Each structure stands twice: as C-alpha cells, then as structure tokens.
C-alpha cells in the first residue's frame, strides 16, 4: 500500500508562559520547544509510529507532498531529517527563492491552558500543474489524502486523480468552518474527516448528527469521520449505516480548562 498525503508542513515554536501577556507587556517564558506541525505531517508521524517494526505493515509506503523552502535551507534539512527513513519526501516542492518555512508561534498560558497561535507562511502554494506532474510519476499509489487547503485547486487535483488512478482511495479533511468549497471536496471523496469546529459552524450539535446528515450529501463516500475533542470521535459507514464511537483518551489527573 502506498499512501500519499498532500498538505502544509509547519515548524512550530511553543512558548509556555505563566499567563497570556497583555499588549506592550514584557513577559519571561518558562519554557520553549520546537516541533514539526501541519495536519498531514502529523498524520504521517502517527502512521510512521504505527507501522515501524510491524511485520503486517512492512509493505506500507508513506509519502508527503508539501511545499517547503529551499532544499538546502536549515528548515528543509530539519524536516527531511526528522522524517527519514520512514516517510518519503522526494515528491515535495522546494521553493528555492525562500528560506523561511511555514511557521506557527504558539503562546501557551499555564494559568488558563489557552493556546494563542500566530501563523506565518510566505511560500507560494502548490499549483494544479505541479501536482499533476508529481502525481503522474508516482508508482502504483493506492491512497491520496488531502488536507483541504485551497479547495478549488484541491478539487482539480482530485478530478485529475479520478482519471489517472481510478482505483485509488481519496480522502479529505473538512476542518475550517469559514473556508468555502470544502463541501465540494467532500462530495468527491471516498473518505471524509470532519472537525468539531466545522460541524458546529454548520449547525451540528454532535459528531453523530454531522456524519449521518452529511452522508446524504457525499454520495461517493464510504466512510465519514468526525472528531469531537473531549467527546472522542465517530465513524459512519454509509453502506451498512454502522456508527462507531471511540472515546477520547484521558491521562491520569488530566483536566480540561474551558
């Protein structure tokens, strides 16, 4: 099985502070950490951990298509090193005129538990021509997963894949509630992942309600999933009308701060 994930790759800087700083306030952070982020890279990281050293998944190939800064930049070198050897980044697009990666700066308040995020990304997004050129040279891909960025471009990419690889599975994320065109992507996908924020933004009160009602609008989809934070996640198989709920994992002494 060859899985290809298409989405942004971020480098996150997390500053943990006693409280959220006010405007013009100088505040000393209690800790700093750096992590790789982005929905698709995070998903591949989990899959990498699940498939590594497992005989039953020895033939699983994980691939990332993302836009990265210059290949020799510190950021790109760091990203490539973190994924090797289990995730293939040879299909990524390197913007040689840029040295800064897509970045997130996160202020994590110890007093409230809130996370305030500031994003920065100057990298030009992938184009349809770039994607089709890459996808056309892939060897027997079996699953394409799209983050759901730039819906009009993603839709064109999906339509190309339907012709080029008719037997491949296509999944998409429907996450940002204000992003137009996501339902058009869902209508073309085999598997759809909905976020709690998108579901609530579209009037759904529960994850179950979301997947069951959206199934009437996604005729091609065989499986619809919706995450619900502390409420866990649900999956709905359209053929059998089966609904499965998985509770969220909570560590000992864990508490949610509203």
From TrEMBL:
Carbohydrate kinase PfkB domain boundaries: 2-246
Protein name, as recorded: Cytoskeletal-regulatory complex EF hand family protein
Source species of the chain: Aspergillus niger
InterPro entries: Ketohexokinase-related, PfkB_dom, Ribokinase-like
């Amino acid at each position: 099985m060859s899985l290809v994930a298409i989405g942004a790759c971020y480098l996150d800087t997390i500053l943990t502070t006693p409280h959220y700083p006010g405007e013009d306030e100088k505040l000393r952070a209690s800790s700093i950490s750096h992590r790789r982020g982005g929905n698709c890279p995070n998903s591949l990281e989990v899959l990498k951990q699940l498939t590594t050293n497992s005989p039953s998944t020895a033939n699983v190939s994980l691939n990332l298509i993302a836009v990265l800064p210059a290949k020799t930049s510190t950021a790109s070198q760091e990203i490539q090193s973190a994924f090797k050897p289990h995730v293939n980044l040879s299909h990524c697009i390197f913007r040689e005129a840029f040295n800064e990666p897509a970045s997130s700066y996160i202020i994590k308040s110890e007093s409230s538990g809130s996370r305030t995020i500031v994003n920065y990304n100057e990298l030009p997004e992938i184009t349809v021509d770039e994607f089709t050129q890459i996808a056309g040279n892939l060897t027997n891909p079996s699953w394409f997963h799209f983050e759901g960025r730039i819906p009009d471009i993603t839709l064109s990419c999906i339509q190309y894949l339907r012709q080029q690889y008719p037997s491949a599975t296509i999944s998409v994320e429907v996450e940002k509630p204000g992003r137009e065109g996501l339902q058009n992507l869902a209508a073309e996908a085999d598997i759809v992942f909905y976020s709690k924020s998108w579901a609530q933004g579209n009037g759904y009160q529960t994850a179950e309600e979301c997947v069951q009602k959206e199934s009437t609008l996604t005729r091609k989809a065989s499986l619809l999933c919706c995450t619900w934070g502390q409420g866990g996640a649900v999956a709905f198989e359209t053929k059998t009308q089966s609904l499965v709920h998985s509770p969220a994992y909570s560590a000992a002494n864990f508490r949610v701060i509203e």
